Amino acid sequence: MKKTIVYIITIIVIILMIIISKFMEYTNEQKQVDQFNFKYLQYTGRNIKGINIASIINQAVDDNEKSYVEKDENGKYIQNEQNSVYIEVKITEFDEEQIYPMELLYRRRNERIC
Q1: Least crowded by CB within 10 Å, which of 14, 25, 69, 95?
Q2: pLDDT given for residue 15 in this prediction
Q3: What is the C-alpha separation between 82 and 67, in angstroms, rounded?
């Protein structure tokens, strides 16, 4: 009788440890995702100077390359809702708003450097 109770308690403790471990793993992963997203979300809807835009776009391209995000035939990163970063730059200085994808700005910046 005592052995049966010990086995049952042991199994319950093991199951609880597995559940707690998975929950902690999920919480840690969610914290990392939130930190990753925050470095881009903090710029949403703000006016940003050119050098900062270049830095943000370089970081986004670097993150996409590290995550092996694929590109389409036009050289744009394919959004996969998991680990891809996409940035649009909206220029509001003119009468008509102009929106540029990050790949276009990155490509033009690199063409001027070469």
Answers
A1: 95
A2: 97
A3: 10
